[in-house]
Amino acid sequence: MSMNLLLMGLPGAGKGTQAEFIVQKYGIPHISTGDIFRAAMKNKTPMGVKAQQYIDKGELVPDDVTCGIVEDRLKQPDTDKGYLLDGFPRNIDQAKSLEDMTRKMGKELDAVINIEVDPKVLVDRLSGRFICKNCGATYHKLYKKPIVDGTCDVCGAHVFYQRSDDKPETVKNRLKVNEKSNAPLIDFYKDRGILHSVDGDRDIADVSKDIDKILSNLN
Fold this sequence. Notes:
This protein is of the alpha/beta class.
């Protein structure tokens, strides 16, 4: 039996780690939209060329081109036994296009796994990074503190800074934007009866175990 999956979750929820686990355990290709966009543009596929034209102008790639690139990828024979989609769809129109194209191919989604983590926890996770101004070594206030507080392990300097992308306010805004775009998709897949939510605010192994339980019951 094939296993056609979509992985959802806010930035910092641990999607990348869980995608690796699913791909290794079930032997299905991980289809990340970022990767397939780069490949389509590099290989100059008709859709890749179209996407490049928009990107070169600094414009957003329209839904029909994005959906075309995903459709081309899902037509590859390595997806016949299943696939793991990540980063697509981003809106309801894309979700409906995905539904149409996969129905035609006989590769409809079996399950949508949504990794849920409290946004407050995600702000801490995502805004905890800081960098040594002298040598560029990276630290995290929760997961990777310097051995001696205020001193870089690598070069011994005492001055650190935080990138603007990692500052709490920027992170909060990014999460708000993502929450807003994810909410309609969560409702859409809930209505389809294929949404499975997992508590991502726990040990990585426990989250993997829960996902495994869901996927085992699909067979």
